[in-house]
Each structure stands twice: as C-alpha cells, then as structure tokens.
Amino acid sequence: MEQVILKYINEQLLFDNEMEEDLDSDTDLLGSGILDSLGMVQLIAFVEKEFMVKVPPEDMVIENFMNVDSVCAYLLSK
Amino acid sequence: MDLSWSKAQIEYKKKVIEFAEQNLNNSISERDHVLEFSREDWNKCAKFGIQGLASPKKYGGHEDDIDILTATLAMEGLGYGCRDNGLPFSLNAQMWTVQLPIAQFGNAFQKEKYLKPLASGEWIGSHGLTEANAGSDIFNMETTATKVDGGYLLNGSKRLITLGPICDMVLVFAKTNPKLGKWGVSGFIVESNSKGFKRSANKSKMGLRTVPIGDLEFKDCFVPEENRLGKEGAGWSITIASLEYDRCNILASQLGAMEYQLEDTIKFVKGRKQFGQSIGGFQSISNRIADMKLRLETSRLLLYKVAWLKSQGKSAMMEAALLKLHLSESFISSSLDAIRCHGGSGYLTEFEVERNLRDAVGGVIYAGTSDIQRNIISQILGL
Ligand SMILES: Cc1cc2nc3c(=O)[nH]c(=O)nc-3n(C[C@H](O)[C@H](O)[C@H](O)COP(=O)(O)OP(=O)(O)OC[C@H]3O[C@@H](n4cnc5c(N)ncnc54)[C@H](O)[C@@H]3O)c2cc1C
Known about the structure:
The complex is a heterodimer of chains A (78) and B (383).
Chain A: H1 2-13, H2 37-50, H3 62-65, H4 68-77
Chain B: H1 7-23, H2 28-34, H3 39-48, H4 68-81, H5 86-105, H6 108-120, E1 125-128, E2 144-148, E3 151-162, E4 169-175, E5 185-191, E6 197-199, E7 213-224, E8 228-229, H7 235-271, E9 273-274, E10 277-278, H8 283-311, H9 317-342, H10 344-347, H11 354-363, H12 370-380
Parallel strand pairs in B: 1-4
Antiparallel strand pairs in B: 2-3, 3-7, 4-5, 5-8, 6-7, 9-10
The complex binds flavin-adenine dinucleotide.
The site of flavin-adenine dinucleotide has 20 residues of chain B, from strand 1, strand 3 and helix 12.
C-alpha cells in the first residue's frame, strides 16, 4: 500500500518537482507545499479508486492525510 | 452517465421558472442602477423553497439529504425565469458555500442554529475567504484565529464578500496554526452582532449590481469554540468539498440565463426588419445565433456531467474546471453576440440586453478565475 501510494505521488504528482530529498512515507505532503491543493485532491481521488474506499470530506484532515504513513493508517482503519 | 431527468425533477424546474417569472422580475433595471438588493425577493425564494435545496429536511430542506441533481435543475430554472442574474448568484453563494459546508461539517447544534434560519430566509449568510493578499493564492491568507479560553480571537480582514454588507453570519476562514500550511486553516461561524466584527458598506461594481459585496473586518473578535466548523485545521477540506458544488450550481443559473438570452435574441432578430427582411435572414446574424446555441448546449453537457458525478459521490475536479471555464467564458461571448444582434438597442440599458454582459464578467473571476481553471485542467493532464 505504502509503495503504491509513494509511486503514484512520485510518478504522477511530482514529476517536475525538484525535491532536495527523496519523498519518504513520513514527509509532510500538503503542509510543506510538496503537493498543492489540486495535487492533494488528486491523491485522495487516487486512493479512493485504487483501494475502493470513499473518503468523506470530513476525513480529509491532517490526521489522515499529512503523509503517506497517515494515509496508510487511515486506509487500514476503514 | 445517465442524463435523464425524472418527471418530478422536470415538473419542479417548471414550477421554479413559473415562480421566478411571476414573482422576481420587478424593477430590476432600476435596482441595478442604484445597487439595490431586494430582501423581499430573497424571502419569496425562501418561502418557495429555493434556499431549502441546500439543507437536509431536518433543517428546513426538502429531502433527507441534499439532492444535487434536483438542485442543479432548479437553479437552472431560476436563472431562466429570473431576469436578475444577481439574485440567483447570491442565493447560490449562500447555499453552496455556507449552507452546504455547515450541512457537511457542522454538528447538530450548528445545523439547528444556523441551517434553519438560512433555509427559511430569516438569515443571510456569506462566505469569507478572499483577502487583499490572498485571492487565487487563497491559502496565503493572513487572518488569524488565536486560541483563548473558551474560543478564538479573530484578527484580519476579508474582501469581495458576496452579501457581506448585509450578512447575519459569515463562514470565515482563518489560520489557527500557520506552521501547518494548508492544514493550519480553520472555518468559523461568526454572527454579525459579534464584538470586533465589522461589515463594510456595499461597494459599487460592474455587474451583479443587485447583490451587495464588501469587506469584513475582525479585530480581536471573540468566537466561541462551539462556532468552529469541523475540527481545527479542517478549513482546507471544507473549502475543497464545497468548491465543485458551488461551481456546478452558480453556473446552472447562468446556463438558464443563457437559454433565455438565446430565445429572446431569436425573437428579436426574427421581428427586426432591415433592407426589407428579418435580420435573422442575414447569415452574419444567424451564424451568431448558431454559435450561441453551440455554447449553450456544450455548457449544458458539461454542467449535467458535473452534477451527475457529484450525485454519485464522485470527484469531478477536471469536469468542474472544464465547466467553470467553458460556461463562464461562453456567457460573456454569447452576451456580446446578443448585443451585436440587437444593434443599438442592445447597447441601451433600458432594453435589458447589455446587463447580461456586465453580469457575465464576474463569472470568469469568482470561484477561481479562468486562468486558474486552465491551470487545473493542464495540471491534471500532467503538465
Ligand atoms: C462578483 C464576485 C463575487 C465574489 N464573492 C466572493 C465571496 O463571496 N467570498 C470570497 O471569499 N471571495 C469572493 N470573491 C473573490 C474571488 O474569489 C477572487 O476575486 C478571485 O479568487 C481572484 O482573486 P483576486 O481578485 O485576488 O485576483 P488575483 O488572484 O490577484 O488574480 C489577478 C490575475 O492574476 C491571475 N493569476 C493569479 N494567479 C495565477 C496563476 N497561478 N496562474 C495564472 N494566472 C494567475 C488571475 O487569473 C487574474 O487574472 C468574489 C469575486 C467577485 C468578482
């Protein structure tokens, strides 16, 4: 799960983004600006499709989407 | 995609058109001139049930849950029947950027306290996001909410707020934790009688002149904790969640206005004679009409697709951006074509043709400018 999400972010969302360090599963995505709003919305749409879950708006919060670790924990809790 | 409407939805749209034509088309030109909002028309809409389209039944609405398809069709009908573009615009602003977020993120207390008076027309709500240094780059906002005993102190100001000068409450966004970037923004419901909250006077603008717009100022404005919408830091998700609905419905009313505009223009060019024939017989004119029809129908398809996706609970980022860009730009182009077809009469305010062009320009700015929509589309395409 973690690798699938990291691969998607690296290949689909960060293709042009010159990051100083590699993206890790604990890298803050939205808060640090690695992803912009649209990138985050795309990521949410991706996990919904890939893992067949519905992410209601009230779940789109830092606890669940701060980094890849928290996304995985959130998905596992569903 | 299933674009067929139920009999009940079509009947309801007809009723909305009838209601608007019979009740809402009074002295619009005069009110447009003097920047006058009609609270009476607002209340008539509430009584008919328009604002209720964005509230669950328990809180003044029609259905157990908000029905986006019926609402889209109804708002299209309102735009068709009501010659004043400002009224549907302001209703949509409240319904989809104030009521919907409260319905989605609010607790039972907030829904009971705010959704009911908003749906009944007793209260007017506005949405405060834009600031002097945060427009397209909205999360660069500077308004802060500092945690204090029992609540928060809000400091900062918002600009270009639809209904701001006359609002009874505002759903305002402020930074609760600037270190967290976009996760550090929260939404608050502020009542207009709160100490430290000030609404500016109405500001004159190019179009949509029957709707007040203005600034909101917060100076050590205390907001009790119970008035925070959603969790601390939920501001980003609240904004993102209402965006596609907002684009869908504000544009639905514009689509209705475009349909009426086309019918009105066809009637005019058939009746107006020059060189011994109807001007509609000249290809220069009929080509314009054909272009207007094409813009109308392509906009309609995009609109219904977004409404359908949202009704299925699906994300519609790309489709909503295509819709916002295409429909708002189309309304400008078609409004200009309508004026050209009407000749000098189209240019005179009293003929009520030119007003659409002035109203349409706002559409390529609010809820994300056309440039921003193009950015969204190209970013999703991987550019
Ligand atoms: C009629 C009307 C009603 C409104 N109602 C509300 C309301 O109720 N609540 C609220 O909070 N706000 C409201 N707004 C504000 C509206 O959301 C903003 O005007 C809009 O987001 C643009 O911000 P700005 O005016 O600061 O322009 P800016 O963001 O400064 O943009 C100026 C120009 O730069 C372009 N630009 C900026 N960034 C980029 C980029 N990255 N790429 C390409 N071009 C770019 C823009 O497209 C535009 O052409 C309303 C505006 C209008 C016109």
